[in-house]
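In practice, a research group might receive sequence data for several interacting partners and want a quick structural hypothesis before committing to experiments. The following worked case mirrors that situation: the sequences arrive first, and a predicted assembly follows.
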Amino acid sequence: MRIAVLAGGRTPERDVSLRSGHRMTLSLGELGHEAWLVDPAEVPLVETLSERRPDLCWLALHGKEGEDGTVQRLLDLLQIPYTGTAAFDCEVAFDKVLAKDALQRAGVPTPPWVVIEGWALRDLGGGAALGKAIERIGLPCVVKPSRSGSALGISFVEREGDLPQAVMAALSFSGAALIEAKVAGREVAAALVGTALEPLPIVEIVPKEGVYDYAARYTAGATEYFCPARLSEGASAAVAAFAAAAAEALHLRDLTRVDLIVDANDRPWVLEVNVSPGMTETSLVPMAAQAQGLSLGDLCDIVLRSAVDRI
Amino acid sequence: MAEFSIDRFVDRYAERTSGMSASEVRALFAVAARPEVVSLAGGMPYVEALPGQEVLEVATQVLRDLGPTALQYGGGQGQLALRDRAVMLMAEEGVDADPDDVVITTGAQQALDLLGKIFIDPGDTIAVEAPAYVGALTAFAAYQPRFLTIELDDEGMIVEQLERAIVRGERPTFVYTVPNFGNPAGVTMSRRRREHLVALCRETGFPIVEDNPYGLLRFEGEPLPCLRSLDPRNVIYLGTVSKTFSPGVRVGWVLADPSVIQRLVLAKEAADLCGSNLTMLLTERWFSNDARWRSALTGLIDTYRWRRDAMLDALEEQFPGTASWTHPSGGFYVWVALPTWSDTTAMLAAAVERRVAYVPGTAFYPDGRGVDRMRLAYCYPTEDRIREGVARLATLLEDDERLYRSLHGS
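A structural hypothesis for the assembly, expressed as C-alpha cells:
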C-alpha cells in the first residue's frame, strides 16, 4: 500500500509525534509498504495529499488538531481513509469533559469531576463557584485542561488555596478546566488493538518522583514500568473489562490506550483515553506489544489490517 | 512479569545529570519555533544584517589562501592571530591584555563549562545574580555547586547583599556576573557598584568571573569600565564575537592569569582538543579589516536600537499598568515583572496558542523563583513583528487578569 504517515504538526507534542511518525514510517516500510512522512506544519497538507494520493493516512499526530477530529474531518472530505477513530468520536474522546460524561453514561467508573469554563470565570464571575467545586470533589484533587495531551497543564492540588493557580494553569492550555477527585493507587495503561480491539498486556507505571507528569513521561529513566502490571487477577480482569467498555462507549477504533488507576480496593477508574497513543521508543503501547511477543512491525500490521477492513 | 526500563543505563548515569530532564517549556518552544509565532523568546543575533557578500569573500579567502591550515587541527589555546584580535576587541572596552593570557573557546559558553570544570567541586558555592544567565547556571550546575543568589536592581548586582553574605560566612569559589546589559534583566551595573564589587572581592580574595557578551552593543550613554580593567589580577574575563559578528563561528575567549589560562588550555584540550581552525581563521580575517567590522557592528547596533525602541514603545502603549519592565541601553533583552500572582510558565501555552512566545522567568533562577517574570528579546524580530507580539501578549495579560479577579472574588 501507499501510506502517508502524518506526524509533527503545531502542538507542544510535535517532537513526540515526529518520533512516533519516523518509527511508524520505518516499520511500514519494512512491512513492504511505500510509506512516507508528512508533517502538516512543514507542507500544505491538502495539496500534498492531493498530489501523492496515498491509499491510506497513518495518523501519528498527537494533541489538538491531530486527535480532536480536525485532521480526521479533513481526510473524510478528501475521501482518504485513515487509521484510528472516526472524526466525531475523536472530538468526544479528546475532550475530557465530553469523554467523561460519555463514560459515566455508559456505566464506566471515572473519578468524580466538575468543569469550570474559562469564559464563565472571566465574564460570569464563575470564580465564586470554586468553593463549591472543592465541596463536591474534595481534596486532594487534580486539575486538568479539558483538551490537551501528554499531561500538559495538569496540576495536583492538596490545599484549597492552590486551586485558583491550578485552574489558571489548566486554562492556559484549554478553554475549560476539569477539577477531578484524585484517586490514589497504581497507574496503569491498557492498550487495545485491531478490529476487535484485543487487549495487550497491562502496563503499570511507577514514576520515580511520584507524579506521572510531562517530565516523568519523556525523560528516559524517570519512570519504571512493569508489564504485565503487578495486579491481582481480579483487578487485571476489571481493568481489561473497563478499558474495553470505555473503548466501546467512545467508539474507538484500530489502536487506543486507556489510562486507568487501580485504587486500594482493587477497583479501577478510567482517567482518559488516547485515540493516537505515542509510538516512540519510550511509549507504553509498543512496550505492551513487546510483552506479548509482538514486534513494532507486528503491531503496525494489526492496526493496518483493522483500518483496511473498513475500506 | 517483565520490568521495563525505557533507559537501561538509568542506574549508571552520574549524579550530575539528575537535573537534566524533559520539560513542558521545552515542548512549547518546539511550537514557538514555527514561523507563524512571533518569538520574543530566543536571543538570536540578527545575523541577516551582516553584509553577506563580504562574509562570503572572507570565507573564500580563508579557504583559498589558508586551506590546509583551516582544515587541520590547531593548538589548544587558539591561533595567536585570533588572540590578537580578541585583545584588540577588549581594548575597545578599555581592557588591557596580552594575547598569551587569552585562550580561545567554542563560544564563551564553553568558557563557562571549562571554568566550572577547573574551579567547582561538588558543594562549592558560586555567587550569581538573580536573575542570572540560564546558560551559565546550567553549565555550572553540571559540577554540582550550591548557588548563592544576589539580587539585582537597576544598578545591577546589589553588592551590599554579597558583602553581607560574606560577613555571614559565605565563601564563594567565584562571583559570576554579566555587568553590561545582562541576560535576562537588561540592566547594567553602575560605576559605584563596579568599584564596590571589585574592592570587596579583592579584599576577601574571591575571584570575579566577568561575562561580557553585550558590552559593545551600547545604544546610548557612556561606556562604564570593565571589572577586568578595574582589577586585572582578580577578574577572569569572558569575551565573544557572537554578538559583534556571528554566533555560528563559535568563537569566544577567556582572559585570565597565566596560571588559570594554563589549566583552561589543558581542560579545553581534554574537552575538544582545539577549536575549529576554519571558523577561527574566518573570524580573524573578518576582524582584520577595521572599517569592515566597525561598519557591520554599527549596522547591528542601529538595528537593535530601533527594535529596543519599538518594544519599549509597544510595552508602554499596550501592557497593563500592573506590569513593569527594565529599559536597557544596550544588548538584547527587556525583563518584565507582572503582578505577583502571575505564573508565566503556566501562561506560556496560552501565549503560544496566540502565536507569541517569551521565556518564563523561572529559567533564570536556580531556586524556582521568577514565576511572575518574563524575558522578552527584541534582537531578532522586525519592529512590526515586535509590536504584533507585544499586542498579542497584552491581550493575554488582560484575559489573565480577569481570570484572576474572578477566581479571587474581586
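Before designing any experiment, note the following. The mean pLDDT of chain B is 94. The longest strand of chain B covers residues 146-153.
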